[in-house]
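The methods section describes the discrete structure representation at length, but only in general terms. Each protein is reduced to its one-letter sequence and a matching series of backbone shape codes. I believe one specimen quoted in the main text would settle the matter. An entry of this sort, consisting of the sequence and the corresponding backbone structure tokens, reads as follows.
***
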Amino acid sequence: MRILAVDHGEKRIGLALSDLTATIASPLKVIKHVSRIVDAAQVAEIAAQNAVVKIIVGQSFDEDGFPNMSGRRAARFADELRNQTALPIIMWDESHSTQIARAARIELGVSRKKRAGHQDEFAAVVILQSYLESLRD
């Protein structure tokens, strides 16, 4: 039972995929943002290619617990994704996923040079791992 996670950004979309036991999240790839429809079609195709059973879309919130601008963008993306696949789409709190991913890579000793640039697929890993761990609670 593979699960795909999406870290939806303005410029890039990070993807992470679980193992077959839905226990461990791994980075999959980053796709460049084109348009909501094209992006959703790409994610739906990647989900189909990997025999995914559900898709988790990260959503960010403001201090009051309401979706912020990026969270609303992610929700609109998820709506379009629902138009392109019959798979269940679950919104998941992605709060601080990029910062957590960056800190984890520092802790693992990844060099500054290799950490430079985008963290999108690693943020997707953080989102997916959080979701997977919630299933075990």
Remarks:
- The mean pLDDT is 86.
- The chain has one domain: 2-136.
- DSSP finds five helices and five strands in the chain.
- Residues 2-136 form a domain with the Nucleotidyltransferase; domain 5 fold (CATH 3.30.420.140).
